[in-house]
């Protein structure tokens, strides 16, 4: 009761107003997303109606939050705009958060689960993973209010969630908290607070060269952009992801001011390991403490299991420092900056380039599939398709890494070394000429290893089997021979024969020859299931040529299956634009590029309302494929974020592919 009394007395309401005041909302199907940022408070309220009724309050501070899951089905509405709140703890620590006035269309709800702490823990609960006992908070009831309140496990300020029933009661029945209105719909006043340290926001005006364009997308980016780092997506990924940061910068380079670019690149360089690898994700706040006695919550625990991000850093750096006027002007000062470790950014860049060269050298010396860059031993993930079956479960050599990112990193490394910008930070080995030569070998020899040739008979057999299993027939009964690039190779060098959208990497980062462009594009721009194109957008994967067993692991419930990712559509569009800007391609190749450009432009326009989402699925209605919010259908593996950093690719008017 002592903690409850302190809580009730010291929730102060909105702190003194500070700029910027960011307030916007996004509705996808049954989920309302309300975003708010003012002063030290940045918060995302997620109101999920219908089946699996839920409320989540997510804070970029410490990637922390609070969640309530309910037994009954209800529909929510936000009764008044979110407001900032703060609470002073004994000893002077501060908590910051929001007050939300929320109304349900039912008179009573039973709380199935309540959690306060790391968003990673809330995610784990959603995946059905057990929650450590020390992260639980017992409810305390006083009159018409129930509070879940606890210190962080290291004694830090911690987290709180208070639910007050307006004109109603709170009771424990059968061991569960029951919220009941005395008359009419249930009206709740909810205060959610975190004691984790706030980040320093960047405003729309500080981020974009043209503020006010596509304002909803710009607001989403602003909610995810801070001086310390760029966040991947909300609500589930309110923290640093190296790959997401680098791809966003690559795709939006022409629209961004130097401050967000250097914030993102600086965060990546700060997190390089001694071997030069890029950190994938970070455990921060309380999640960094779980199972790690003595760990400092202010120090992130970094994860280096991904491979693709290691080869993204050099291309993005080269584009910024060498190809943009602002980057050229600021290059020397940027590279001279010191990381927390004491190393300069220039030294860290050389560290990454040395790693790239060492990993690429064996294949460059003697090209064969065994010398490609594999996933790390014991892992089935390593590129952006980082669900366990995203590369088919047995994919060992990713197409995006080997056919696109490794040669792109080598070419960019050659340019950076040849510029002279890095000369004062050490003598590189190998030099720019050798890296350029290695890049040419990779660009020529790696893509053909992923080619999948199918005879007319094989195509017709696969199409018939897929149509029987899925109910989706191929348009046109006389499909001929088919060739496309496989998603990955397995450990024996055999193709994982799944068509995919990762051809966008190849077209965006490289200048492939005509034969490679034809191989990459010709089949994927066909209608599904012959290719990737549907009325719901371009699919991230098409397993129709891969057999029944494989098709089951790539259906439209899977995170990296036959679903649509906004940024992948944007990446392909940008990549095609890069190729069309060339003057050294054949006319028939240009014709294919123009047809593909029209197809992907139509796909993007058809799905315009969803363009800021992380991903979406589809369903069949009267024989037609129509979009469906991901995470709101039967069997969907997880849930799409409403605000996703790299989904802002729709803002790009100028792409970094000179």
Structure description:
By secondary structure, this protein is α+β, with helices and mostly antiparallel strands. It has three domains: 2-194, no CATH class; 204-445, no CATH class; 447-651, no CATH class. An eight-stranded antiparallel β-sheet has the order 1-2-3-4-5-8-13-12.
Sum this structure up briefly.
The chain is 31% helix and 25% strand. With 658 residues, the protein is an alpha+beta fold.
- Taken together, the total number of domains comes to 3
Structural class assignment: alpha+beta
Rg from Cα = 25 Å
Per DSSP E runs of 2 or more residues, the count of β-strands stands at 31
Number of helices: 17
> What profile does the largest beta sheet have?
8 strands, antiparallel
First-last Cα distance: 64 Å
Q: Give the strand line-up of the largest sheet.
A: 1-2-3-4-5-8-13-12
Q: Unreliable segments (pLDDT under 50, ≥5 consecutive)?
A: 1-19
Mean pLDDT: 94
- Overall spatial form: globular
Percent in strands: 15-25%
Task: Please estimate the helix content.
Answer: 25-40%
What key phrases describe this protein's structure?
658 residues; alpha+beta; 8-stranded antiparallel β-sheet; 6-stranded antiparallel β-sheet; 17 helices; 31 strands; 25% strand; disordered N terminus
